[in-house]
Predict the 3D structure of the following.
Amino acid sequence: MKVSDILRVKGGTLFTATPDEPLAQAVQMMSDYDIGSLVVMEHGDLVGMLTFREVIQSIVKNQGLGSTLVRSAMDDAPLTCTMETEMDEVRRMMLDRHARYMPVMDKRMLMGVISFYDVAKAVVDSQNFENKMLKAYIRDWPGQEEGATPAN
């Protein structure tokens, strides 16, 4: 399974911020849309990622939101992947960096964002499908002929 499979199911709504907007405005957007991250874009380029982790760290560091800008709170070197990245690799990357959100890029174009939740859901859905197929296969197992004895 590839990242493109997750984005196809998830849809394409993207929420972004600019580095020079007030952090309070970005936090308001995260609250309004019940999202855990914003991709930070400047002049059409990905320049950072803002998640609730960076927001909380900034609040503690600055003793509140104050006049803090997104630029000073964002992760300016976010982990990224491509549409062709395999799910096993995405899981490993996210676990290694403790990343909950990952922008998906096609060269310099932002294609979407996947979350650790999206990855976990895809794995569970895949396992459920495989489980269902195995149960159907076992249920439809060809029966033994009458009078035949099982081989040892």
Remarks:
- The longest strand covers residues 45-51.
